[in-house]
Write a structure and sequence with these properties.
The protein is of the alpha+beta class. It is built from 11 helices and 5 strands; from the N terminus they run H-H-E-E-H-H-E-H-H-E-E-H-H-H-H-H.
Length: about 250
């Protein structure tokens, strides 16, 4: 199974195709709901800027809105574990550390219980930059308790961990998807800036006015929420939106 999974994963060249394929693969192990998060712009303050998050999930909107959009994720015990550790962790960890959990963390656990999220595993990925962070929560299907999940992990955990690690590497190698996607022309002008060209040079290359180039750069900064064009080039590059074949 691993060989077939990896061959197909590497064949897929869009996150929109990789994600449902991975969701289907995890369901064969009993993990029917997944929540993946990744950022290359991890802040030093209290929480992630979710605008710079890549979020992939097959959870319902009723769950994702309070958990992600309203910031409940920041008080989730397994999110805290993922921020402080690398590797895989059984959700049995929470049961063994109830006395150490803050009231906000207990409220998240109760919220999860109301949504049928009671058993699973979390994986925190090792990244090359201290500003990067990626993790995934694997929720066991209805009817499975944590003891059953742990038994599955004892038998097949190495394969599950490997599949998630490779999926993470594949997703982060592909162009960013989401509401902050650059247009073709915005990518083009940022690529020329990244190669050291000034607005006047880019205007000559593209056969447009300098004002048009500056407009595209301004819109690119707005899309990426960048303060400067240099920061926009950095963000676009890290999100694989520029210098990518086929874009």
């Amino acid at each position: 199974m691993i060989r077939e999974y990896l061959e197909e994963l590497l064949r897929l060249d869009r996150v929109e195709a990789v994600w449902p394929f991975h969701v289907e693969a995890m369901a064969t192990f009993g993990f029917e709901r997944l929540l993946y998060g990744f950022t290359r712009f991890r802040p030093t303050k209290d929480r992630f800027a979710t605008d710079d998050f890549l979020i992939l999930s097959n959870h319902s909107p009723d769950y994702l809105k309070p958990f992600i959009e309203d910031g409940m994720y920041f008080h989730a015990p397994m999110v805290r574990w993922s921020l402080e550790n690398v590797g895989a962790c059984s959700w049995g960890w929470m049961a063994g550390n109830l006395d150490a959990l803050a009231p906000e963390e207990r409220r998240v656990m109760e919220f999860n219980r109301r949504h049928g999220i009671t058993a699973g595993y979390s994986i925190s990925f090792k990244d090359v930059s201290p500003r990067s962070k990626g993790a995934i929560g694997l929720v066991a299907k209805a009817g499975m308790d944590q003891a059953e999940v742990d038994a599955v992990w004892a038998e097949q955990g190495r394969d599950i961990l490997l599949m998630n690690q490779i999926a993470h590497l594949r997703i982060t190698s592909l162009p960013f998807i989401g509401p902050k996607t650059l247009t073709r022309r915005q990518r083009e002008v940022l690529e020329w800036v990244g190669q050291g060209k000034m607005a006047q040079d880019i205007a000559l290359i593209l056969g447009v006015s300098t004002a048009t180039v500056e407009k595209h750069l301004r819109l690119a900064r707005e899309v990426l929420e960048a303060e400067t064009t240099a920061q926009a080039v950095l963000k676009a590059s890290l999100q694989n939106q520029i210098f990518v074949i086929g874009t």
